[in-house]
Amino acid sequence: MIMGQLKPTQVLNKAYRQIAVETTDFEHFKSALQILLDNVSDGQREETQKEHLRNFLSETFYKPYYMAPEEDIDLAVRLDKTAKSNIGLLIEVKSTTNKSEMISVDNLNKKALQELLLYYLKERVTKKNTDIKYLIATNICEYFIFDAQEFEQKFYQNKKLRREFQDFQDGRKTSNKTDFFYTEIASPFIEEVQGNLEYTYLNIYDYHKYLREDGNNAPKKLIELYKIFSDTHLLKLSFQTDSNSLNRGFYSELLHIIGIEEKKEGNKTVIVRKSIEKRSEASLLENTINQLDAEDCLYKIKNIALYGSTREERLFNVAMELCITWINRILFLKLLEAQMLKYHNGKLCYKFLTIKKIRDFDDLNTLFFQVLARNFEHRTPSILKNFEYVPYLNSSLFEVTELESDTIKINSLSQREELPLLPSSVLKNKKGNLKVDSLPTLGYLFAFLDSYNFASEGSEEVQEEAKTLINASVLGLIFEKINGHKDGSVFTPGIITMYMCHEAITKTVLQKFNGFYGWNCTSVIDLYNKIDDISKANDLINSIRICDPAVGSGHFLVSALNELIYLKYELGILVDVNGKRIRKQDYTFAIENDELIVTDSENNLFTYNPCNEESRRMQETLFREKKLIIENCLFGVDINPNSVKICRLRLWIELLKNAYYTQSSNYQYLETLPNIDINIKCGNSLVYRFNLEDSIKSVLRETGITIKQYKNGVAKYKNAQDKEEKKELEILISEIKSKLKTEIGQKEPKRVKLNRYRAELNDLLTPQLFEFTKKEQKERQKRIEFLHRGIKVLEDYFQEICSNKIYLGAFEWRLEFPEVLDDEGNFIGFDCIIGNPPYIQLQSIEHDADILERMEYETYARTGDIYCLFYEQGMNVLKENGCLCYITSNKWMRAGYGENLRNYFATKTNPTLLVDFAGVKIFDAATVEANILLTNKEANKYSTLACIFSDTNGLSKLSDFIQQQGVECEFSSSDSWVILSPIEQSIKRKIEAIGTPLKDWDINIYRGVLTGYNEAFIISTEKRNEILANCQSEEERQRTAELIRPILRGRDIKRYGYNWDNLWLINTHNGIKGVKPRININEYSAVKAYLDQHWDKISKRADKGDTPYNLRNCAYMEDFYKPKIVWKIIGNQMAFAYDKNQFIMNNACYIMTGEHLDYLLSILNSQAILWYSYVTNMNKTGVGDVQVGGQNIITFPIPAYSDNKNILAKMADCVTNQKISLKSVDYQIENIISEIFGFTTDERNFLNTFANSLRKKG
Fold first, then answer.
1. pLDDT for 485
2. Strands (E), 235-369
3. pLDDT class for 266, splitting at 50, 70, 90?
4. According to the 3-state scheme, what is the secondary structure of 613-676?
5. How many degrees, rounded to 5, is the angle at CA 934 between CA 933 and CA 935?
């Protein structure tokens, strides 16, 4: 194959290849293709052939899009039906006979590609369009399809080409004709890259023969063509199995059957019980709540406080946990059923989730506990008869949970009522009407699930009715939404987890091998070339410990699982059970759409065939590797018990995907699943009692327990073969932990101190033989009082531990995972910590925040966020040189509350990667701007690869984009962390070297007036005149006129000036102590009469003075009457004005008084300070506006004033007094300021471009 040329199967997303095609859609495509082939002939005009192609595209996939020739573009497809949406697909069409201009596989550098390049640059550079997905050059027969990412990397990122194009566009070249661009600009640049420019090539006439064939290969080849032309591919749309996209229909109906709904709370979407009028007692949740309530089950639950504070809250949370458990089991069984049907070519005897076999909740309970939890020897004859083909899974998923034991099982649910179908239900007939109005809940659930395809992997086939594929990734997203939003967690898109796991785990694997062998490998290729002992290499990778301390649905752990298997494949150490290597020439492994996908040497997707020996070998290898990695490498903790259940389910599903029939059973029975639940634990990752550094040697000695016993017990538990063995091991593990906790608890410093105080107090209170002197008696009494106080503090502490629910969930990292302890019980730590911790403001959790403060986290800030503590705790539980990778809100980089965290990173860790998604919405359900940080537990080397995303361009190829666009930054302090290019770093250094922070100037900064009710206190000129007219005397009228002052709002302020909107403030100030008395409203009858009209509001407002008529205290009221600089707090850019007309500002503004205000005004309005403030210092709102608070502005570095800079003050004065226009001197002011800072020409141009782009937005 020619370099750069790719086959369709190579470029189609492998996960998309697994999506089946519906027969009607496929036949329609074939028909349209046949019409195209029939209609096109060599003698036709080019315009006629273009029309035939347009008709073909419109008939197949592109009718919902605006598609037409545009300017010089032959055919442009926009992203929706409107002409205003961005172009997503560019097509250049040549006639079938125009060989001179059409590109060929031998020569890409022809006019067709040169034209495409021009159109691309016009879109990308001039129109700033980052939504182009593909570009196509075609002569109707042949298609050269270029991914826009290729053009981005090969052309757009070439600065010289961009400059040449801009000069051509601006008329700075010798010709402005397009032929000049093609020959003199495009051709040389294409020539440079054409040897490695990748493209998909196909000739539709190669597929013509398949239209007439019915062989097995015919549909497969045409499916390939169907998908290449599809909008899913060419417009890069999300598809069914894409873990980044929610299947809204499935999700909504599942919520309906459970009995819950979504509700907006602030910027989050939470899941709540349906409102009373929408509830149905037949829904799973309402049915469960009714049974729990009827049987008074809440009293039987240990630690009921964990489920809420009110009875209603507890009933909801207990019922939700039970429903999640049951739905988990049912969905797992649906996936199992789909796998077995696939393995056995759809034989219906393998279908068991039907209302015929499972008639009611009793039968379902039987399936849970008498079928799946029992091997075939222990099943009753009736069970064997009804569920002959249902395997024994040996999974704790099908054991009675503690909550079920304490409350109810699913067979307690009532079956009297039917559940009304959701109006938008999938259960509709061909006319689109509901088949029935209601169904028994179980029947509804089974019919609903049957409407979807639950195969773990799809297939390249045509189906009569291609059911929507619901795989594990999609289920993970659905359950994260159901379960996670209440505690501040959000679902991380697969594109992010894939990237984070790849970066963090590759780094961890390199560290593991380098540390063990003393190597210095820096890449997987280096490692591949060094490894000579495959067995030892596998042992090393299997010894890696990865933990997500806020595990949620387990998304990161699943991505980590895929990444570890992929790395083994890349390193050439992936072997089967006999040690035979999985060779790269036989199989290709890839991770796409968060799925591990295997293809054979002919690029066919791997599917398990129990009758084929090689297929069995691959399936068993994948199962064995997943089992090894899940058991040995993956760990998780979450405060939410439902999250823990879902995470375990996700991991079991990953194993289920590769379930195989065992040789020992003569290929009759599936391999049983391990007990992986012990690796995923429930608890509060941030709260603990036992320090990680505390030695437990003496405890081990006194209890007679060894760490080896503990580790062996856990290892045996994971592979226990029946319930009895498992129960024995559970008891053993529980006893070991209980003994260790008790003994460590007794040796806890606070406990030791309490015992010591009590003993000393007891001695002091014991009657003595000899009397004490008065001085001794006084000292003795003083000591007794001290001990009483100390004992009370410590007793209160231990009482709170016993009674407070946050302590009930405390997670003891010191003991819970023996895999990270050495043989003497010392805590070693994890190799890698990864995840997306919750985002919860500490102020919002009140008392719990107090307890977190007592944990003495260095990064704690009361105004901060809980994710800051997760960063620190993650580093705590890492081993030395270990790697932590989180995605969190990016506010810590600049916000005041992030100062402690920035200092922690700079002084205690080595940040190696920082990706800031400042302009991109990563999370579907949260407005937060995010960042990825990868840092190591080692000394800071002050070299961080940093990259900022200002738009979605590059997201699809994160790793490549970051490597190409990343810059090296040095983060060494608690100052704001800002990602800057080399030119920006130079500008920043110069500004900070020349400037003095404003906090060191002789100025005062104050905020505008807060009235508490603007509708009353801020009035129009007409209302002012009316109040003045109502005054009782001329003297009162004059006083009132003085009282009502002109006011400016934030929106009124512009650069150097303002537009007053004729608004006034009724300045009934509260007085200034020792300066002026409070305004007495009784002396202003007209004002009082007016304010009395608003009495209901002004009397109840929080911000008021001594009386409801007065404004709140404002000690700096006199400063409003001084000359001052004013600016608005929030806006899309900064603007500073000068006021000497004694305006008062509202609370959307700040004022500055002091010396050299004219000079300061010119500097503050400069491009340099605009840029500096925007990138280094300012908080941003959810819509991208900046917040210029007083705490921000005092950090601005301003060059010290001197007489030779007086020219700036004079210019600013002339502008503010409107003697000259800003436009006439702005350029001159900027030049002087640039000279003061010492900027180069390139730096000036950079600042000018930045300021202009920002001011255009405004």
1. 43
2. 260-265, 268-273
3. low
4. HHHHHHHHHHHHHHHHHHHHCEEEEECCHHHHHHHHHHHHHHHHHCCCECHHHCCCCECCCCCH
5. 115
Please enumerate in sequence order all residues whose Cβ is within 8 A of that of 1046, keeping only pairs 6 or more positions apart, or say none: 1060, 1063, 1064, 1065, 1141, 1142, 1143, 1144
Residue 848 has pLDDT above 50, yes or no: yes
Q: Which of 1197, 1156, 1154, 1116 is nearest to 1002 (CA)?
A: 1154
Q: Do the strands 634-638 and 680-682 form a parallel or antiparallel pair, or are they unpaired?
A: parallel
The candidate with the shortest Cα–Cα distance to 68, out of 60, 59, 55, is 55
What integer best gives the mean pLDDT of the chain? 87
Label the pairing between strands 930-936 and 967-969: unpaired
For residue 742, report the phi and psi dihedrals to the nearest 5 degrees: -65, -50
d(CA 166, CA 183): 16
Average pLDDT in the 44-65 region? 93
Task: Tell me the pLDDT band of 2, cut-offs 50, 70 and 90.
Answer: low
The pLDDT value recorded for residue 1038 is: 95
Strand positions, DSSP E, 211-267:
260-265
Number of H helices, E strands in the chain: 48, 39
pTM attached to this predicted model: 0.79
Exposure class string for 40-49: b at 16+ Cβ within 10 A, else e: beeebebeeb
What pLDDT does 483 receive?
A: 64
pLDDT of residue 918: 82
Q: 155-165: string of b/e by CB count within 10 Å (b at 16+)?
A: bbeeeebeebb
Contacts for 1090 with CB less than 8 Å, ≥ 6 apart: 1023, 1027, 1030, 1066
Q: Of the ranges 242-256, 627-641, 990-1004, which one carries the lowest mean pLDDT score?
A: 242-256
1183: tokens are 């819509």
Strands 134-138 and 87-93: parallel
Closest CA to 1233 of 1214, 1256, 1207, 1255: 1207
Rounded-to-integer distance, Cα 561 and Cα 571, Å: 16
Location of structure tokens 């302090």: 973
Instruction: Please tell me the distance from the alpha carbon of residue 1127 to that of residue 1143, in angstroms, as a whole number.
Output: 13
Here the tokens at position 1022 are: 């007409």
In the DSSP assignment, the letter for residue 489 is -
Flag whether pLDDT at 1025 surpasses 70: yes
pLDDT digits (tens, 9 = 90+) for 386-436: 888 888 877 777 888 899 999 999 999 999 999 999 999 988 877 777 888
Of residues 1124, 1046, 1036, the one with CA closest to residue 1082: 1036
DSSP helix/strand/coil, 114: helix
Q: What is the pLDDT of residues 172-184, one digit of tens each?
A: 999 989 999 999 9
Rg (the chain; Cα; Å): 36
Q: The dihedral of CA 805, 806, 812, 813: what is its sign?
A: positive
Give the model confidence (pLDDT) of 337-394 as tens digits.
888 888 888 888 889 999 999 999 999 999 888 888 788 888 888 888 888 888 887 7
Q: Is 468 left (phi over 0), alpha (psi -120 to 50) or beta?
A: beta
CA of residue 1081 relative to chain centroid, distance: 54
How many other C-beta atoms can be found within 10 angstroms of the C-beta atom of residue 924?
Answer: 14
Structure tokens at 518: 């003393």
Selection from 259, 287, 283 nearest residue 273 by Cα: 259
Residues in the chain: 1258
CB proximity list for 6: less than 8 A, separation 6 or greater: 198, 199, 200, 201
- Dihedral pair phi/psi, residue 946, rounded to 5°: -125, 145
Higher pLDDT, 797 or 273: 273
The CA distance from 472 to 613, in Å, is: 27
Strand order in the sheet with 1003-1007: 1003-1007, 1149-1154, 1124-1128, 1136-1139
Q: What is the mean pLDDT of residues 795-817?
A: 73
Q: Are 1159 and 961 in contact (CB under 8 A)?
A: no
